[in-house]
Amino acid sequence: MVTPDIPHSDTHGSIRALDLLERPGLESGVKLGSLPLSLRSAPIPAGWVLDGKPEARNTVLSRSADGMARTLIWDCTAGRFNWHYDVDETLYVLEGSVVIKESTGNLRCLSAGDMIFFPAGSHAEWNIESYIRKIAFCREPLSGSVQLFQRVYLRLRRLFGASR
Length: 164
Prior knowledge:
Radius of gyration: 19 Å
Order of helices and strands: EEEEEEEEEEEEH
Distance between the termini: 50 Å
Number of helices: 1
Shape: globular
């Protein structure tokens, strides 16, 4: 049984996911629906590939209004490659598996239902035995000065907001 709001693959490799149709009267801007989405080729840079011929594909499901965050579906065939993260990425494995070698040398095996976070600036070696499909939540990190301002603002808000 397929639940319409949960991404799944069909026999052609398409994904059913949110189609981002706006519903009139929703002040919050909530978007919902379903639409088959085709994944497009997203080649891994040749200099990152260590073994095999991994073929990656993706499609963007959503973007934040400020352009700082996006959600996408990504899949890849067998191969071993380095990956360098220029954004914060939380990923959730939908299908298949991968062995991740962290920069510390630690190995982590991820399969369907597993989640991992990679901060911007990190890197990892991916070893995909046959196939993986993931949903990725990516966010541009804020600059150090903006992060400091945000922490101060939130702390002041908690202090003065609690006294109401």
